[in-house]
Structure formats: C-alpha cells, structure tokens
C-alpha cells in the first residue's frame, strides 16, 4: 500500500462517517422524534465513529497477519474465525437477553440480527469482487470488529443508551467497515514492476524459438524419410 492510498483510505473513511452521521441522525430524528443533535454534533460524532472503524480495521489487519503466521493451515484458520463469529454473536445476544425483557428485548435483538445480515451481504459482495476464500475473513471482520467497536454504546458504564442511539452507532460503524473491507483489494493492489516486463518478453521469445525449432525438426524428418525408403527399395532390387 502506497502513502497516497493510505491517506485516501483514512480521509475517505472519515468523510463517509461524517456524511453518514448527518444523514442517519436526521433520518432517525424524523422517524422516532428523538433529537440526536445539530448538524455539527452529528458530523463530529460520525467522524469519531469513522476513526474508531479505521483503528478497528488496522487492528484486524494485524490480527489477520499474526493469525496466518501462527496457524499455517488456511482451513484451520477459517474454522477459528467461524468459532469466533459464533462466540461474538452469542455473547451479544446473551447480553441483551440478560439485560432486557419483553418488547425491549425483541427490539434490542434486532441489533445482532442487523449486524449478521449486513455482514453476510458485504461478504457475498466481497466474494464477487475478489475470490471465494474472502468470504469468511470479510464476515469475521464485519461481525467481530463492528461488535467490539460498538461495545461502549452497547454496554455503557453509566446508565443505558437509547435504542435510537444504538442503531445510529451500529449503522455508522457497519457502513464504514463495509467501505474499508470492500476496497481493501484495490488499495493493496500491486502495480507491475518495470523489471518483470523484459523477463516476460524473454520467456515469450524463448517459447517462440522452441516452437520454430520443433517445426524445423519435423519438416526435416518429413523431407528425409522418403529418401531413406527409396534407398531401401533399391537395395532390395539388387
């Protein structure tokens, strides 16, 4: 990843978070009649969530690098990620079940369901854009990273966060994380170096020379074979 792409990754995610903060805050205020703040506050809040998503994504890249180094078997590493996904979703569901009852419980259970559904959609898109092996890592990042990043809103130290604020936080984080994971292959894409071009041309030239030599050998065999047969026949006549 070049410095230019690194700067674009950071500031584009911040810009996305700021825009989503204003749009989602205004939409939630219109639907639920809960005022989340003025435009400046929503912009700063969305930017803050975007910066948290950037740090979470950077931590995921380090985790993926270390995990792939310790667990050399790719299949085993994917199994570990699936187990961690189930653990995170199970812990989040248990947290809401033990904390809320009745109608509030069903409304709060929409949060892990929303995370799982959006993560599944993003992982499927990632597979279409890259390769099938990217499904589980993308699903793991969308679920585990988003849940950990939203912990201060899900389980605050003092009091309870309203459900509208919780959805606001989760949707902003999901959008920023989806933007990062879907564009990762573009940001780390390597350009073909200048040194590789002559090597490829040399290989092509050698292959063409080999084909020409094979053709000449075949033509020589075809030309020389009738002469030998003719000589054999003359010997038989004598």
UniProtKB/TrEMBL annotation:
Top-level lineage group: Bacteria
Alphabetized InterPro entries for the sequence: KinB-signalling_activ
Coiled-coil positions: none
Keywords: Membrane, Transmembrane, Transmembrane helix
GO BP term, pick one: positive regulation of sporulation resulting in formation of a cellular spore
Keyword hit for Repressor: no
Stretch list, region Disordered: 198-238
Pfam families cross-referenced by the UniProt entry: KbaA
Ranges of compositional bias, category Basic and acidic residues: 200-220
The protein's name: KinB signaling pathway activation protein
Organism name: Thermoflavimicrobium daqui
Lineage: Bacteria, Bacillati, Bacillota, Bacilli, Bacillales
